[in-house]
Amino acid sequence: MKSKIILIFLSFLSLESRELGEFVKDIPLKPIVFEIPEIEKSKSANGVEILSLKNPEFPIVYADIIIYHGNRNLGKRSVSISRILESSWALSGSKKFPGELYLQKFESLGVGFSVSIDYDKTIIQISYLKSTENQVLPMLQGFLEGPNLTKEAFENSKRKLKEEILRRNDNPQSLGSRKMKEALYFGTIQGRSIQSKEVDDVQISDVEIFQKEIVSEPKKLILLTGDFEKSSWDSFFSKAEIPSKEKTIEEIDTFTIDRNIQKFKSEIRLVDKDVQQSFISMVGVLPAHKHKDFYAIQILNYIIGGGGFNSYFMREIRNNRGLAYSAGSATNFQDTYGTIQFYAMTKTESVPEVLKLMKELVQIDLIIQLKEEELVRAKNAIINQFVFQFEDSKRTLASEVRRRDHFMPETYMKDFRKNIEAVSLEDLKKVGYQYFRNDSMIITIVGPKSIKNQLKGNVKIISPEE
User: Among 92, 269, 351, 433, which is most exposed with the fewest C-beta within 10 angstroms?
Assistant: First the structure.
């Protein structure tokens, strides 16, 4: 039975003179009723799970093959191995269609194809005309069962990665985010930045071993949308692999993140770069996705920094004072931990003032003064945005995979609106006391070392490649 959710679109309430204009508050908006699509769940003949949503409007099939093997499985090996494999795998083709011949054949058939290796999984995406399925699927099977890593693709990938390393400090925001991750995930694979020497030291055999680990990983998932025939995929994988007895998998949890925050929170990390536009980041720890505080955190984040022009960050830092090109916050919930980042892009001479204002907006004195109408507005906005989880079949399946990977309850989608509406001002104060604390965050700034004396506190200057 399909679940129905009624969404009432946001009418912006006039809270204070600094709020957005009143020109939208009297616009009548009718409630929208939509149905959560019913996902079909089954298993192939060889035990691989298939999640599917039929949409026969166009004769196109979209398939994602998710293999639960990624960077977290590298152990002490260089993280450059997965990056090299990611860019060289498709270019190497298969034994039957080696090298560029593989992609050339796919291109002639109108096939869309990509390989990405993430922290915890490898995802192979493919789209094709239904009429070409009898040609496409055997080629895809050959690609997985008989990978053909070539020396030429391997060397080209190494060269491109080294060029990327040389350019990676050009953008202040990407540089700041990288240096923030090095501290936040210190001591883990997530916290490693690739160095040129590592790339030089990687051998083709290192990449081939990691590739073999991925294709032999027994935990796989197939997502199907469009005008597919599920029977075509029932025997796609020839057999279920036997799990390896010795498997190195990195585990990151809230303790790991909190330990690193305690290590670095006492200093402002100033990344020395001569720029006119500086990037400021404050990052803290959150609980895992399935934690009961998830809903209150989502709402408070929306109010403080995640709500775009409706947030305090955009209103106070950019709109009212004109101090930043962009300002806001973002949460990142995973299965065993979460993080929250507050950020701003500003003129270098404005860094001290913006950092002071950011700290003022991320502290309990502000949160305890929030009003009921601000809570209601945030609830309505989040609920209205929730509908976009189902704007297309691929996104619907991706949301279901995320729910399962993070051990969220079966009724997560259906109960989302109810759980958001249940959040009170007291709940916001509770999570504010615990997680929205500027004194428990890692602060990273990208800017010239000349601004050190203008910053209050213990400032540590680091180089982009330190």
Answer: 433
- Give the CA distances from residue 332 to residues 211, 261, 316, 371, in Å, rounded to whole numbers and listed in that order: 28, 16, 24, 26
Q: Are 269 and 460 in contact (CB under 8 A)?
A: yes
3-state class (DSSP) for residue 464: coil
Are 39 and 50 in contact by the 8 Å Cβ rule? The answer is no
Residues 60 and 113: beta-carbon distance below 8 Å: no
Asked if 70 and 120 touch (Cβ cutoff 8 Å), the reply is yes
Q: Cα–Cα distance between 265 and 183 in angstroms, integer? A: 10
Q: Count Cβ atoms below 10 Å from residue 297 Cβ, excluding itself.
A: 25
pLDDT in tens, the chain (466 residues): 444 444 433 333 333 333 433 433 444 434 445 577 889 999 887 889 999 999 888 899 999 999 999 999 999 999 999 999 999 999 999 999 998 999 999 999 999 999 999 999 999 999 999 999 999 999 999 999 888 999 999 999 999 999 999 999 999 999 999 999 999 999 999 999 999 999 999 999 999 999 999 999 999 999 999 999 999 998 888 665 555 556 679 999 999 999 999 999 999 999 999 999 999 999 999 999 999 999 999 999 999 999 988 899 999 999 888 898 899 999 999 999 999 999 999 999 999 999 999 999 999 999 999 999 999 999 999 988 888 888 789 999 999 999 999 999 999 988 999 999 999 999 999 999 999 999 999 999 999 999 999 998 899 999 999 8
Alpha-carbon gap, residue 452 to 352, rounded angstroms: 9
Residues 6+ apart with CB under 8 A from 45: 234, 235
Buried b or exposed e, range 185-206, using 16+ CB within 10 angstroms? bbebbbbbebeeebbeebebeb
Q: 19: alpha, beta or left, given left = phi > 0 and alpha = psi -120 to 50? A: beta
CA pair distance 27, 12, nearest whole angstrom = 9
Helix (H, G, I), strand (E, B) or coil at 47: coil
User: What's phi and psi for 109, nearest 5 deg?
Assistant: -90, 0
Question: Which CA distances in Å does 444 have to 205, 212, 268, 371, 436?
Answer: 38, 38, 6, 31, 17
Residue 109, burial from CB neighbour count under 10 angstroms (0-12, 13-18, 19+): middle
Can you tell me the distance from the alpha carbon of 340 to that of 356, in angstroms, rounded to the nearest whole number?
Answer: 18
Cα 70 to Cα 85: distance, rounded to the nearest angstrom: 11
